[in-house]
């Protein structure tokens, strides 16, 4: 990997001055040329890293629902998706502190680092969250894959590739003793599910919780609810395999919403409603169900899409949660410690695929055959 390294001499002229000594790397990346078409692994040229960036050789990348939504609907320029990368640092820009060549890292979401939300320790609420994660460019509008006519920087990474650029704000150093390949999903899905329970809702011991949607984010929430000591923990889904896994990972009750009426089942379980609802399905009808089963002063967290609140009474709250309000550099090491203690066995959700099987991995995830597909992209040494 990382075979060709070319140093270009900077051309004269104002617009090109920042390109002096730009390094260009030949990489392989899965390119989405238009929505609805399969991804194609192509050779691209990646410029960088800049002074505030590191070049990471990607060892593995999880596939998340947001990637799949883009695969279905995108109609802009060709792009490289992927936002759950794990890899080895190969090059470090001179302004990147605390990261060195050879470090094992997990890549998470990007933030600006300068707005009031970022400065107050809530980068998931970054004022530029959309631009930094879905802009397919750096925040200054530049794009490291421009030579190839492709756009990168998805979630500040674009990890469906042999190499990605990241900054100190979305790089998380992880222990070398751990299986690096496995850690990829911590960067988005696991952080979002567990972070919603532990950071955003701060679910206390003994609280009742219902989790609508037991895919990877929902199962991370189930594991976190068990760690928090919530009771009961009610998993709701349409897929019997996922519901069975929810029971094994900490759900005390499960409801197959195709066969059972969710509000009446919940009332039978708790005697009233629940203190917390996590709505991950994105199905508008489930927003209403969530409101119907929420106890007075209860809170519903919407993870899939904001909106849906028609009325609120008796002190109920609806919050929209991004990335579990987690600071990745603090929260991902916490999840790793819980995993090592046997309390957060997220490895049970993972199925590995080779990089060239990316379209099959996406299809298996769509069909619900695989909960968390992880692509093996290069060796971890
Ligand atoms: Zn994601
Ligand atoms: Zn910000």
Please provide a written account of the structure.
The chain is an alpha/beta fold and 381 residues long. It has ten helices and 17 strands. Helix 6 links the parallel strand 11 and strand 12. Helix 4 packs across helix 9, helix 5 runs parallel beside helix 6 and helix 7 runs parallel beside helix 8. The N and C termini lie close together (11 Å). The N terminus is likely disordered. One zinc ion (ZN) binds next to loops.
How many strands in all? 17
Bound small molecules, deduplicated: zinc ion
**Secondary-structure-derived class:** alpha/beta
| Largest beta-sheet characterization | 7 strands, mixed
Instruction: Specify the overall morphology.
Output: globular
Helical amount among residues, as a percent range? 10-25%
Distance between the termini: 11 Å
> What is the tally of helical segments?
10
* Spans where pLDDT lies below 50 across 5 or more residues: 1-18
Round the mean pLDDT to the nearest integer and report it: 92
Rg is: 21 Å
Strand fraction equals 15-25%
């Amino acid at each position: 990997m990382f075979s060709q390294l070319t140093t270009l001499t900077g051309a004269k002229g104002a617009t090109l001055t920042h390109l002096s000594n730009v390094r260009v790397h030949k990489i392989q990346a899965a390119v989405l040329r238009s929505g609805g078409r399969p991804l194609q692994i192509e050779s691209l040229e990646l410029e960088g890293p800049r002074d505030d960036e590191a070049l990471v050789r990607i060892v593995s990348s999880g596939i998340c629902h947001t990637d799949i939504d883009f695969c279905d609907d995108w109609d802009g320029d060709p792009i490289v998706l992927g936002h759950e990368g794990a890899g080895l640092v190969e090059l470090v820009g001179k302004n990147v502190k605390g990261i060195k060549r050879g470090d094992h890292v997990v890549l998470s979401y990007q933030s600006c680092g300068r707005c009031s939300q970022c400065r107050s320790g809530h980068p998931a609420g970054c004022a530029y969250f959309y631009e930094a994660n879905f802009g397919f460019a750096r925040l200054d509008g530049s794009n490291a894959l421009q030579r190839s006519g492709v756009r990168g920087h998805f979630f500040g990474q674009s990890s469906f590739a042999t190499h990605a650029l990241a900054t100190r704000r979305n790089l998380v150093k992880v222990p070398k003793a751990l299986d690096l390949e496995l850690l990829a999903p911590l960067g988005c899905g696991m952080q979002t599910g567990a972070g919603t329970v532990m950071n955003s809702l701060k679910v206390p011991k003994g609280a009742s919780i219902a989790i609508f949607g037991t895919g990877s984010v929902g199962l991370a929430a189930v594991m976190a609810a068990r760690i928090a000591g919530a009771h009961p923990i009610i998993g709701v889904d349409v897929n019997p395999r996922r519901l069975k896994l929810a029971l094994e990972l900490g759900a005390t009750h499960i409801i197959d919403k195709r066969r059972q009426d969710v509000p009446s089942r919940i009332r039978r379980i708790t005697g009233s409603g629940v203190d917390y609802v996590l709505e991950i399905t994105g199905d508008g009808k489930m927003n209403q169900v969530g409101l119907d089963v929420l106890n007075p002063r209860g809170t519903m967290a919407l993870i899939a899409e904001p909106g849906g609140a028609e009325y609120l009474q008796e002190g109920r709250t609806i919050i929209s949660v991004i990335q579990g309000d987690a600071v990745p550099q603090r929260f991902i090491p916490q999840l790793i410690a819980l995993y090592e203690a046997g309390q957060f066995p997220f490895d049970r959700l993972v199925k590995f695929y080779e990089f060239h099987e990316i379209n099959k991995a996406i299809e298996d995830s769509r069909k619900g055959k695989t909960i968390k597909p992880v692509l093996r992209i290069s060796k971890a040494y």
